[in-house]
């Protein structure tokens, strides 16, 4: 049975939701393990056939622990031909939803010495009712500037699941 390690850096849970969707749709012959990369790693990359990392953007940045993790495990990630995707709200807009057009993915590639074998960018979700006051106001401000949803009572999922399906097909092809 093929084994896939799914690593996440998630703030609100949409990245985890995407990874769970990937796990479900890789097929019943694939065993997936979901691990928080912010915690000490207790598994070995060599125990897995594939590795996929999903990380969310918050206020324009990946969590610094993503870069620390990659620096620590870069050789293993390169050996595993690992995939990497970034989740952000800007990707809700056409033309900003690919690694080539995402300012966040470009920034990642500049800051990291690792170039993932498989790359993608997915739109995330807004969870206004779940945010604390500060985050809600800041995100409303950002969304107002970028023409997005500002109603503080709404939860809006922007993830394009067909794009995630395409990513899954690439994972299957190896």
Overall description:
There is one protein chain. The chain is α/β, with parallel strands linked by helices. It is built from 5 helices and 8 strands; from the N terminus they run βαβββαβαββαβα. The strands form 2 sheets. Strands 1, 2, 3, 4, 5 and 6 form a 6-stranded mixed beta sheet that branches. Strands 7-8 form a two-stranded antiparallel sheet. The two termini are 15 Å apart. The model has no long low-confidence stretch (mean pLDDT 95).
Unreliable spans are none
Quaternary state reads single chain
How is the biggest beta sheet arranged?
6 strands, mixed
CA gyration radius, whole angstroms: 16 Å
User: Strand portion, in percent?
Assistant: 25-35%
Order of helices and strands: EHEEEHEHEEHEH
Query: Using DSSP, what is the number of strands?
Result: 8
Mean pLDDT: 95
Instruction: Give the termini separation.
Output: 15 Å
Shape annotation: globular
What is the helix tally? Answer: 5
In helices, the fraction of residues equals 25-40%
Helix/sheet category:
alpha/beta
Key features of this structure:
single chain; 174 residues; alpha/beta; six-stranded mixed sheet; two-stranded antiparallel sheet; 5 helices
What is the compact description of this entry?
The protein is an alpha/beta fold and 174 residues long. The protein contains five helices and eight strands, in the order E-H-E-E-E-H-E-H-E-E-H-E-H. Strands 1, 2, 3, 4, 5 and 6 form a six-stranded mixed sheet that branches. Strands 7-8 form a two-stranded antiparallel sheet.
């Amino acid at each position: 049975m093929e084994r896939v390690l799914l690593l996440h850096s998630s703030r609100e849970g949409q990245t985890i939701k995407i990874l769970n969707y990937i796990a479900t749709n890789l097929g019943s012959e694939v065993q997936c393990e979901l691990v928080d990369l912010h915690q000490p790693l207790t598994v070995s990359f060599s125990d897995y056939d594939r590795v996929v990392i999903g990380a969310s953007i918050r206020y324009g940045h990946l969590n610094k622990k993503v870069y620390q993790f990659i620096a620590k495990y870069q050789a293993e990630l390169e050996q595993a031909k690992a995939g990497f995707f970034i989740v952000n709200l800007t990707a809700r807009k056409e033309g900003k939803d690919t690694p080539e057009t995402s300012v966040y993915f470009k920034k990642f590639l500049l800051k990291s010495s690792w170039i993932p074998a498989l790359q993608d960018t997915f739109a995330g979700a807004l969870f206004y009712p779940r945010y604390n006051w500060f985050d809600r106001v800041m995100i409303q401000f950002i969304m107002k500037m970028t023409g997005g949803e500002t109603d503080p009572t709404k939860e809006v999922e922007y993830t394009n699941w067909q794009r995630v399906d395409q990513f899954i097909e690439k994972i299957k092809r190896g």
